[in-house]
Amino acid sequence: MEERILEVRDVVKRFGGLVAVDHVSMDVYRGEVLGLIGPNGAGKTTLFNVITGIYKPEEGTVRFKGMDITGLPPHQVAKLGIARTFQLVRPLKNFTVLENVVVGALQKSPNLGDAVEKSLEILELVGLYEKRNVASGSLTLVEKKRLEVARALALEPELLLLDEVAAGLRPKEVDALVDMLREINKRGITMIMVEHVMRAVMNLSHRIVVLHHGRKIAEGTPQEVANNPQVIEAYLGTGVE
Amino acid sequence: MGSLTRSIARNVAIAVIVIVVVVGLLAAAVLLRQRGGGEVTEIKVGVILPLSGKLAETGADLRDGIEFAVDQINSQGGVKACGGVPITVVWGDSAGKPETGASEAERLITQEKVVALVGAYQSAVTKTASEVAERYHVPFVNPDSTSPALTQRGYKWFFRVTPHDAMFAAQQVEFVNWLNQKFGNQIKTVAIIHEDSEWGSKVAEAWQQAFTQAGYQVVKVVKYHAATVTSLDSEVAALKAANPDLLLVAAYVQDAILLVRTMKAQNFAPKAVLAQDAGFITPSYKEQVGADGWYIFSREVFNWDLLEKISRLKEVNDAYKAKYGKDLNGNSARDYTGMWVLYYALEEACKKAKPSDLDAFRSALRDALANLNIPGDKLIMPWRGVKFDANGQNTLGQGIVVQMMEDGKYYTVYPEEFATKEPVFPMPPWTERGG
Amino acid sequence: MVSEIDVISAIINGILVGSIYSLVAMGLALIWGVMDVINFAHGDYMMLGGFIAYALYLAGLDPLVAVPVAFGAIFLTGVATQRLVINPVLEAPLVSQIAATFALLLMIRYGAEAAFGPYTRLVKVSYAETIHLGGITIFVPQLIGFVFSIFVALLLYLFLTRTYVGIALQATSQNREAAQLLGINVKRMYDLAFGIGVGIAAIAGVLLTTFYPLFPEEGGFFTLLAFIIVVLGGFGSVFGSYIGGLIIGVVETVSALFITPSLKDVVAFIIFIVMIMVRPTGLFGKKE
Amino acid sequence: MAELLKVENIEVFYGEFQALYGVSFHVDEGEIVALLGANGAGKTTTLKTISGLLRPRSGRILYEGRDITHTPPHKRVEAGIAHVPEGRGIFPWLTVMENLKAAAYVKRARERFEETLEFVFSLFPILKERRDQQAGTLSGGEQQMLAIARALILRPRLLMLDEPSLGLAPKLAYNVIMLTKQLRDEGYTILLVEQNVRLSLKVADRAYVLETGRIVKEGSSAELERDPMIRAAYLGM
Amino acid sequence: MRTGWSEIARQALSLPVLVAAFLLVVTPFGLYLADLPFIANMMFLSLMYAIAAMAWNLLMGYTGQLSIGHAVFFGVGAYTTMILVVYYDVTPWIGMFVAGAVAALVGLGLGVPFFRLRSHWFTLATIAAGEIFKLVFNNWEYVGSSAGLQMKIVPEGKALYYLQYAASYVYIYVALLVLAIELVVLYRIVTSREGFYLQAIREDELAAKTLGINTFKYKMMAMGISAFFTGMAGALYAVRYHFVEPAAVFDVITVSTYIAVAGIIGGIYHFAGPIIGSFIFLPAAEYVRVTIVARFPRLFGLHVFVLGVVLLVVSLFAPDGILGWMEKRGYIRRRRVIEV
């Protein structure tokens, strides 16, 4: 687990006066699950958007497998092997579940038959096989979250970025989702997960990076992070001045 | 297995139904085609006009002119050489669009089986409609389009009764020469302002040529887009800067009104303004422009005061007024005349062929038109007559020049044989008039 | 060829005619800002205002009397339109919204043509005089129109910034949900925005009749101009639209002076496209 | 103490997604009640349902004993419910004064606007100083003050604050939360949603803990402060 | 993934398509026999607009980009055909395809700047482009300025080369040919990977990007093809009427908007929607015009007013068009790209 699959160096992203990501550096090693946490507005999703090319950072670089991908357009980043899910689920509403996944699968398997076959496998993995011909707009939230993951997997990524996949789910659903993600990780896919649902992130992550006000304030194992006073303060706030 | 036979049976059933329907339709079509024939009780003429769309107002006027001519022809005994059968008009609406004009022409020719077409006012529509007539070998009588290009196409079935813009331009040069003679060479420089559709552009082109050839100096040509014009301030400023003796104008209604107002606003008063009818002679312009329109010359094809000069005209106009509550104008009078021209040709054609043999009759009608020679005194127009050249252009037509006087009415000032007033020249400056 | 005085004169005339564009555009900007709807029929409400002025003129009154009348009548028409047509498609996809306002355009423009005929009408006012100032000529009705337009713009400005209702309207355009939380009835704001928006266009229509011929199809080009101006002045910025209108007026008259007048609209349209490419927030617009 | 607000068993959906599962709680006159819970637990949804931006599929909301479940949002404001939304919802292109005036659109606020304004300015003198400045140019803390000030202009009986300390420096966050205490002393009833758990428990009289759309715990602040479950709810321990 | 020709053949040979094709092929002949050029012309116009509206809908219904400037491509196509035949003696059989290609180039040229814009900004830019093209052609001497260009009448022996026939029925077959080509091409596209991507872009452009789709490239592709066939429709106009002028072929209402309205009325989310829409809207518009003008000759704009009412009713009560409405009622089903 020594190979660095992603290197983020000194990334700065500003919106007008607001510094959303402030000189953040972090490494992701092949095969691990990295948790990225922090209170609301800490800059987690912005960092995701920088990595996936939706935003271009003002400063700093992002390297994927040693290659500089800073500022590449999203579709190229995706082709290189970085897939992501969205915090607010964005299924292609009028597409069926299967079609949603096939869109991604076609990137790697231009033959429709192959793409469909692969997509069906992935749907089996995420537990949506039965719903394959249903319009994705009519799925429940938990199903949509699974669909997001399935669609990202269809790109056969080496690195999967999960943006709050557990948000809004019931505890049982979270556990099932964690099991599913663990299964995916076992297949050799590296993951970064932005997550508020601690039940998920603490169970799954090998390491955790904590952002607060755009800065990295802590990094370590889940245990280390949970006991870090700075982290506790960021989350629970200070009692007294 | 059952489902397979069922689906075969269903397909066969559908195929049978389709074939029956198609055969039925074709049979009906053939039957429909064969209706008619036998004795001819009327002579059908197709008329294509802009009855809807932007020019519907003008279209209504043209329609009245045609309708009135047909009424008169029929009440005096129809087409006598064909046994006194009446003329029936089948209307086609071009909606002001060339493509609709073309399809209406085809409908009138093949479906309504008219012997000839009349129309279509806008030159663009006349172009496509007359092209269809040419291909079907149907005479096309055009009383009212003035683009010179129309009679430069080498068509055999196209006959234009009205003079065209190049002829008008030549005549306008004569008029200006006459003014110079009369008032002592005051006009040397000329400026032109025109809207940029085909009509305005071609008129301007003809003017530029004719006036330059006659030794006048064209100092400025300004064009604008009538459909979107909201102000003519800079246009008029540019004209004013050029300081011409004579301003030539080709404009539609809104822009004509706007132009006159802007000229007044900018106190731009050349020695004479000579307009090319259109906007300047529409009823709305005349009603609305008021004193601002005084002393402006316009080329016209027709004017109310010709009543005093042309005896036939007064009679016609009285009857027309009694029926429609308005006087004839350049548009209705031209289409009225066009219909009469067609009637004279019909009388000749009836001597050569029977209307029941449509192709032969159309051909005879074409020949009749080509050989027509109507003297001026049979017309209500101030023309020397109607006689078409090889291109189908009436060579005996001419325009007149009118000028709006202080009573807000246009008076004929040129040619002298039709004039009822002396021209006011030069035009008094804006600051020195009443109203 | 082109003298200084011509240029100055073109600029002044551009401002005078532009001030009418401004009014039309301000109304469009208000509707666009508050409701996020593009009103393709905007210029046609302006035309209706012109016909109201003409009706009063026929009754022997000065057309300017129609300013309050037209505003009132078209305001009510606008409120009715918003409730019956706009509101049902507010949440619909863009294509349905455009289809609906385009249907309005056809109905108003050609309904007017059916009702009044396609004829051109002209109003003759007693003050149709010109003023001459050292080679520059100004047509009095245009000047009066300009003054009225400033007056109306000022009133609208005061309304939007000094009255509770006006501020509530602005608030709605900036944050719909927060406005609701302050007790602002958003549906009512939509009624008001559409009513006032087309009402102001109707005032422009009235002012226009004193120096420009009136005909049922006159609105079309003004709508296109209003789009250009709203984009130029800054989407949703009512003040920016006023300035934008003056700028487009001047651009048209000045470019008519230097290139052929029949291409002056091309200049305006090119400015429009360049503007949405490089700075879609407009000259005075707000960043997104 | 009289019951000012009573939420009974509300179920709220976003399309197919159920956000609240039978949430019930009450707020008494004159108290500060905190709603705690991790992100996505349903706190904001609850406030939006009370102010009328969202409609519950079932359940009722009683305010001053009247059923307001089907009352439109602006009527609820007239009745005295003010909601300072998450992210403040100020009008960035209006001046401070215009932002305050926007709140005076409802009758109950307009009638006594000048008077309330005095009070608000005495609470937030900085706003008085910046009255003609565009609200978008204010600092985060000032914007939060403006948002609260604007709600106060409505002269509400029930003031709901959604994450008022969000995005503020610790010192400012502290001040803002402490302000609620002052407001309670002025006679306002406050429903507070706040991520700074310790701080909110410091000012609140009672609190409810929400987890994935359900109330999982309630009690006095003192009780909850000692409860290990709170930490678990936030940090997943 | 590419729909095989055998699959297309299977689709093309399915019963409803065969019946429709058979009727389309027989009808003009029947109309000719019955001497009903008015109906024949309606049919031609419906086909011409169907071709343009199908092309327009590749951008709208499939890619989610609303253009009200398709008159640009229509006009450019019409002019290209005309210039080639009038100045260079090139047969319209070739000219039509060149027209499509030139229109496609114009489309790609406009796409580069315009696809940086989103939703209504894109729409407004297309409107402006339409106006600019109209004004420029109006002032361009080479293309005859406002007078436009008219083909000379050629001797009958050359009719096939110059595609000049008196009867409109002939042109229906030309239009049918173009439509058939278009249907095959569009069908292949929308059922291919590219078409699939286009729809993904329509649904959510950002999501599409993160799924590895180069959205700009595919939008450009859609624009190019859309412009190509709209240009072909314009070419048909030139071929049919032997005449072009800026006012007719660059008109924002009768070209740009009618194309969109035909698509909307038929239903933009169905492959056949624009065809159905054109075959309803155009004949309806013509019928309304003819009957209303005949009955109320003095109420000038009434027929357009009636069209406005129709459009309003559709946009309020059947915003997804006739096919969308039928789908909602369960009468028809939208074909899925993939069904397993």
Q: What does the largest sheet of chain E look like? A: 2 strands, antiparallel
Alpha plus pi helix count of chain E: 16
Q: Structural class of the secondary structure composition of chain E?
A: mainly alpha
The overall number of domains of chain E is: 1
Number of domains of chain A: 2
Chain-averaged pLDDT of chain E: 88
Radius of gyration of chain E: 20 Å
**Span from first to last CA of chain A?**
43 Å
Walk me through the topology:
The complex is a heteropentamer of chains A (241), B (435), C (288), D (237) and E (340).
Chain A: E1 4-15, E2 18-29, E3 33-37, H1 44-51, E4 59-64, E5 67-68, H2 74-80, E6 82-84, H3 97-108, H4 112-126, H5 141-154, E7 159-163, H6 171-186, E8 190-194, H7 198-204, E9 207-212, E10 215-220, H8 222-227, H9 229-236
Parallel strand pairs in A: 3-8, 3-9, 6-7, 7-8
Antiparallel strand pairs in A: 1-2, 1-4, 4-5, 9-10
Helix pairs in contact in A: 3-4, 3-5, 4-5, 6-7
Chain B: H1 2-34, E1 43-49, H2 56-75, E2 87-93, H3 98-111, E3 116-119, H4 123-136, E4 140-142, E5 158-160, H5 165-183, E6 189-195, H6 198-213, E7 217-224, H7 233-242, E8 246-250, H8 253-265, E9 272-276, H9 283-289, E10 297-300, H10 311-324, H11 330-352, H12 358-370, E11 374-375, E12 385-386, E13 400-404, E14 410-414
Parallel strand pairs in B: 1-2, 1-3, 3-4, 4-5, 6-7, 6-8, 8-9, 9-10
Antiparallel strand pairs in B: 10-13, 11-12, 13-14
Helix pairs in contact in B: 2-11, 3-4, 5-6, 8-9, 11-12
Chain D: E1 3-14, E2 17-28, E3 32-36, H1 43-51, E4 58-63, E5 66-67, H2 73-79, E6 81-84, H3 96-103, H4 107-110, H5 113-123, H6 125-129, H7 140-153, E7 158-162, H8 170-186, E8 189-193, H9 197-203, E9 206-211, E10 214-220, H10 221-226, H11 228-235
Parallel strand pairs in D: 3-8, 3-9, 6-7, 7-8
Antiparallel strand pairs in D: 1-2, 1-4, 4-5, 9-10
Helix pairs in contact in D: 3-7
